[in-house]
Amino acid sequence: MRNVDNAKTAGEELVKWTKRGPGWDLAVRVCMAVIFDEMETEEARKAFLAAAKEEGTLLPQWQLARKAVEIWEGRCGRALPRWVRPRLCKW
Question: Are 51 and 24 in contact (CB under 8 A)?
């Protein structure tokens, strides 16, 4: 799992995918357009999410929250405060 936070990273991830349907094709084109300042970044985000859903790689919200906790704890070297955990996901 990789954090995709810009059009360049999204494009790099898209070329790794095996399913290359219409959603993938659109996402690649939109990401390229964003890189060349021809479209807004929000359009790339929407296209990437649609392609990820089509690919089957879009994680459910609870898995994203759990992964965020793991990343935070790994980077900070300490546990996430108890008062924050219930708000992110149910364990």
Answer: yes
Could you give the CA distance from residue 73 to residue 83 in angstroms, rounded to a whole number?
Answer: 15
Pull the structure tokens for residue 50: 């649609």
User: Could you tell me the pTM of the whole model?
Assistant: 0.64
> Max alpha carbon distance in the chain (Å)?
44
Is residue 2 in a domain?
Answer: no
Task: Please check whether residue 80 lies inside any domain of the structure.
Answer: yes
Class of residue 24 by CB neighbours under 10 A (exposed 0-12, middle 13-18, buried 19+): buried
Place of tokens 């900070």: 76
Structure tokens at 38: 């021809």
Give pLDDT tens digits for 5-56: 889 999 999 999 888 899 999 999 999 999 999 999 999 989 998 998 888 8
| Same-domain status, 15 and 42 | yes
Tokens for 91, please give them: 């364990």
